[in-house]
Amino acid sequence: QVQLVESGGGLVQAGGSLRLSCAAAGRTFSIYAVRWYRQAPGKEREFVARIIWSGSSTSYADSVKGRFTISRDNAKNTVYLQMNSLKPEDTATYYCNAVAMGDYWGQGTQVTVSS
Questions:
Q1: Were both Cys, which of 15, 40, 60, 86 would link to 113 (CB 3.0–4.6 Å)?
Q2: What is the predicted pLDDT for the residue at 43?
Q3: How many other CB atoms are found less than 10 A from the CB of residue 54?
Q4: Is 106 helix (H, G, I), strand (E, B) or coil?
């Protein structure tokens, strides 16, 4: 089992920044990759970014490329999502997902960007 806890969400003005954290616990040695997803009200959950747990390979949705950066601190078993130049359309609940010997999700953290 892998437990994930997100934090760092909040209310920010357009153009501002936030850094989300995803702290993993449990069988973290089994994690292959960690992904961030988001879901806005009335919309489907969408992929945001991914990082390979044991390497440095990353990928991003086109909508966030150049603005968001995913990184990890293996010593802290934590993955970060640095979000810059935020837009109102980035407003959503952000979820952390770990691909391990199973598929694990956190509870989500709310990000609200005001115009």
A1: 86
A2: 96
A3: 12
A4: coil
